[in-house]
Amino acid sequence: MNDVAIIGVGLHPFGRFGDKSAMEMGADAIHLALRDAGIQWKDVQFGVGGSLEVANPDAVTRLIGLTGIPFTDVFNACATAASAIQLCADTIRLGKYDVGIAVGMDKHPRGAFTADPSMLGLPAWYAENGQFVTTQFFGIKANRYIHEHGISQRTLAKVAAKNYRNGVLNPNAFRRKPMSEDEILDSAMLNYPLTQYMFCSPDEGAAATIMCRADIAHRFTSRPVYLRAAEIRTRRFGAYEVHSTFAPVEEDVAPTVYAARAAFEAAGVGPEDVDVLQLQDTDAGAEIIHMAECGFCADGDQEKLLAEGATEINGRMPVNTDGGLIANGEPIGASGLRQVHELVRQLRGEAGDRQVGGNPRAGFAQVYGAPGTAAATVLTV
């Protein structure tokens, strides 16, 4: 099995871009990744692309070059980009190709994510009683968690305020205005305990990552980042997850737990070895929950960690240094690749004003996609 190195990353800014199409954003991200890797499009032997709104991301090749490469399209809800990363990396690990690209792109309309429940095999009453509005489910999940583990609503505001501050330092972020905890708490209550500014926004953007066999990475770069693991797991029977099941709850363990454990085992590192984290903060409660699910703290310890600044850029456990989803928004197909872009920049020491200290050596990314698909990725230098 080949080891895999990341030799180039590219990111189209996240936000709103008028008539510019998702495909055009994807092409921009690819060009940036090629430039970063110092290679040409003809050097890329295969591609994997992901999107919610774009049915055929492979068509981005018409804007880059019709070189005839094999290209696979994937969709896995909010885990779409992580799925593209895993498929690209595993194809290289298995020795079929030496150099590949994973790209994600989306252009979402304004408003909360909603969907036809029949797409996910859910009963009609999920839509009939309004539960397929994601804000409602995130609120229910966060409310249960903070109640069970003694976490205050202000701690949720601390998460959001941190991510807005980090977004100010990120020129590619959608929201680049700091907000105080009080402003966040006083904003419109959408679904208790989550207020308006504790949520991310669906938006537009694209990202790309170029990978190769680790043993040939020196041909392209003197600073490769190694993709040690990319693992995806789904729910086990009885586990309750957001808008995902109406079965009896017997085992309340999220798939994120299993994905993170599998990634750490495959990578040969543990949570204690990670220097910088990217966690899916679809809402402020999600970041809190995923800290524990991924093994970085015990349930309920988040209150103390946030109070002491552990998750700040200069803390001992920096989380979402680029502002996460709360500052960047979420174009689904690109979101997990944005996380990897940030980790690569951090591990190379290229993150500028948001660079973490201490010469980071390992990064971790996690995304969660409804109705119960979790992904975890481990990078090292």
Detailed description of the structure:
This protein is an alpha/beta fold and 381 residues long. It has one domain (4-111, 199-380): Thiolase/Chalcone synthase (Peroxisomal Thiolase, Chain A, domain 1), CATH 3.40.47. It has 12 helices and 11 strands. The strands form 2 sheets. A 9-stranded mixed beta sheet has the order 3-2-4-7-1-8-11-10-9, sandwiched between helices. Strand 2, helix 2 and strand 3 (71-74) form a beta-alpha-beta unit. 55% of the residues are buried. Residues 255-378 form the Thiolase C-terminal domain. Residues 4-173 form the Thiolase N-terminal domain. Pfam families: Thiolase_C_1, Thiolase_N. InterPro entries: Thiolase, Thiolase-like, Thiolase_C_2, Thiolase_N. It comes from Pseudofrankia asymbiotica.
In short:
The chain is about 35% helix and about 20% strand. With about 375 residues, the protein is of the alpha/beta class.
Structural class, from secondary structure content? alpha/beta
Task: State mean pLDDT (0 to 100 scale).
Answer: 91
Instruction: Give the biggest beta sheet.
Output: 9 strands, mixed
Order of helices and strands: EHEHEHEHHHHEEEEHEHHHHEE
CATH topology: Peroxisomal Thiolase, Chain A, domain 1
Roughly how much helix do the residues carry, as a percent range?
25-40%
Note the gap between the termini. Answer: 19 Å
Number of separate helices? 12
The number of strands is: 11
CATH architecture: 3-Layer(aba) Sandwich
Whole-number radius of gyration?
Answer: 19 Å
Strand fraction: 15-25%
| CATH class designation | Alpha Beta
InterPro entries: Thiolase, Thiolase-like, Thiolase_C_2, Thiolase_N
Protein name: Acetyl-CoA acetyltransferase
Domain Thiolase N-terminal: 4-173
Organism: Pseudofrankia asymbiotica
